[in-house]
Amino acid sequence: MGLFKDDPPTPPNPIATAGAQTGTNVSTSVANAFLNNTNQITPQGALYYDPTGTYSWTDPSTNQTYNVPRFTATQVLSPAQQNISNLGVQSETNLAGLAAQQSGMLQGLLGSPLDISGAPAAGDPSTLSGVPDAKLSYGDGSRQQGTYDAGGPITRDYGANDFSADRAKVEESLYLRMDPQLQRDRGALEARLADQGIKIGSPAYQAAMDQYGRQLTDTRLGITQTAGQEQQRMTEMEAQRAAFQNAAQSQQYQQNASLAQFANQAQQGNYTQDAASAQFYNAGVATEAARKQQMIEQQNAARQQWLQEQYAQRNQPINEVTSLMSGSQVQNPNFVNTGKSNIPTTDIAGLINTNFSQQLSNYQQSSQNFNSLMGGLFGMAGGIMKSDRDAKKNIHRIGTVFAASSEEKKKLPIYSYSYKDDPDSTRHVGPMAQDVEKVDPGAVHTIRGTKYIEPSRVMGSILRAA
């Protein structure tokens, strides 16, 4: 025995377990055999199952010998069916004798080969060679017209001439024509101002000259406007000429497109006619080939029918002898499928192993608890440690160890807990000082109202008790 855990369970003996299972299986099989071997009695006869001996079998693993019963199935015809059977045997004997006599005639029939020289001729496949070949192609109706003339280039501008030079010539001509008059008008204005006593540079002189300058500017603007109008007129004439050229090019383009479309439609018509002609020709070739193929098949069918008739004449005597040898058949009893009883085999080995597994599981759980307790106890440091119940929280009892002498066994409870002054609430395993006092008062010390224990002394008490 350990401190508080039991010894591990003893595993089952596999030989004994196998022997127990084999004995159960043999006993169940024997019982099922007696239950399922049901005797049957029908109007045509009977079927009996009788144990007629035993078979001795020794289990190689346990050397245990088993006497397994053996059964014999016996079929018995009813009196009426037995009489039919007797008559059938007699009939078969008579027919067999007749067949033996007839079979002698077959020696002459089968001794000579079958003459097929008078058979109709088979169809000659060479007659198909006169069928013309099918047309695999036909004309494309001439090539389609994929392009046509665009009708000339499109006029995209009026050329490099923007008529600026013509405009300049117009302006120059007008200036040359107007300049003498303008010079005479300026001279007359200056003379008139001098006659009026208006000096050059005076305000009156400057005002008169400004008026003259505005008139001169208006005149020049008029000349410029006239020249611009002439340039605009010439530009518009050039634009009209370009538009006329483009209209003529577009008309030519449309005419060329219509001609190309007409040509392609004519080509398509020729192509369709050639295709229809080729299809008609191929249909005629296929019809002629089918007609000649049908003639070949009819010739082959006539030959095959003649051969079958010859084979029938040769086989008929053989069939007659075979029929004589078949005789008549006895009607056997028609037994029904009786209900089967099946006693399930008890899984002795499974029960034994399951019980051991449960005991082993309990032992493993007990060992786990023991290891947890002992790990907490042996982990206590030397010296003294605080173990007062009032200084602890979250207290849970997890087990018990035995202490004191063998004459007076006392239990020492073991707990899982944390200290009240530990902010992290770290879990510890160990006894309470109040419980240790009951087992070994000398292992407990009170310091400023708190109880402490000597771990080494507590462990000594436990080990001595063990």
Description:
The chain is an alpha+beta fold. Among the domains are: 126-326; 379-465, no CATH class. It has helices at residues 14-36, 79-111, 164-195, 203-326, 348-378, 433-439, 455-465, and strands at residues 40-42, 45-58, 65-77, 385-386, 392-403, 410-419, 428-430, 444-447, 450-453. The chain has a 3-stranded antiparallel β-sheet with strand order 1-2-3. The chain has a 3-stranded antiparallel β-sheet with strand order 4-9-8. Strands 5-6-7 form a 3-stranded antiparallel β-sheet, with helices on both faces. Strand 5 (392-403) and strand 6 form a beta hairpin.
Q: Rough shape? A: flat
| SSE arrangement, N to C | HEEEHHHHEEEEHEEH
Q: In order across it, which strands form the biggest sheet? A: 1-2-3
* Major sheet attributes: 3 strands, antiparallel
Mean pLDDT: 79
Strand residue content: 5-15%
Number of E strands = 9
Category from helices, strands and their pairing: alpha+beta
Helix content: 55-70%
Query: Which stretches of 5+ consecutive residues score pLDDT under 50?
Result: 1-5
Radius of gyration: 67 Å
Enumerate how many helices there are, as a single number. 7
Termini separation? 9 Å
Features:
single chain, 466 residues, alpha+beta, three-stranded antiparallel β-sheet
Topology:
Blueprint: H1 14-36, E1 40-42, E2 45-58, E3 65-77, H2 79-111, H3 164-195, H4 203-326, H5 348-378, E4 385-386, E5 392-403, E6 410-419, E7 428-430, H6 433-439, E8 444-447, E9 450-453, H7 455-465
